[in-house]
Amino acid sequence: MGTSRSTSTSPELWPPWRSLRIHLLAALGAALVGCGGPRTNGDCPNDLPKSCPSAAPSYQTTVAPIINLRCITCHSPGGQEASRPLQTYSQVYSERSAVLNQVYACNMPPASAAKPTEEERQALLTWLVCGAPQN
Q: What angle do CA 71, 76, 80 make, to 5 degrees?
């Protein structure tokens, strides 16, 4: 009887899978921007992080305040996009791919809203590329 290794929880396989997930997420974002529609802003930077830094931006102290400032007006009850709320971590996490694609493509926030600063944009994109950890 041979022994088989479980690949779903094998610690030695986790780092390559994490790296693969990060690269696939970044590629998906880039592909969807190229195929899913034009960027609405001609000045939209090509600034998607290529990988996750060793310390991902904190959801609690960095990302949640950005989302509260830039997104909640529309993405909460009574808002224009109330059907896609972004008020809690679990709501943001469930929409992470859409948030990544829309922010990276400069489609969100809409032109009628204040744009995020360069630092806010980088923090949000980096956090998303890192897999949107609840940190």
A: 80
**Cα angle: 112, vertex 134, 79; to 5 degrees:** 30
Q: Where do the structural domains in the chain lie, given as residue ranges?
A: 56-135
User: pTM for this one?
Assistant: 0.70
Divide the 135 residues of the chain into consecutive groups of 10 and give the mean pLDDT of each group.
46 49 48 40 86 96 98 96 97 97 95 94 98 97
Phi and psi, residue 4, nearest 5°: -120, 150
- d(C-alpha 41, C-alpha 107), whole Å: 8
Contact indicator for 127, 53 with CB cutoff of 8 Å: no
Burial of 116 from C-beta contacts in 10 A (0-12 / 13-18 / 19+): buried
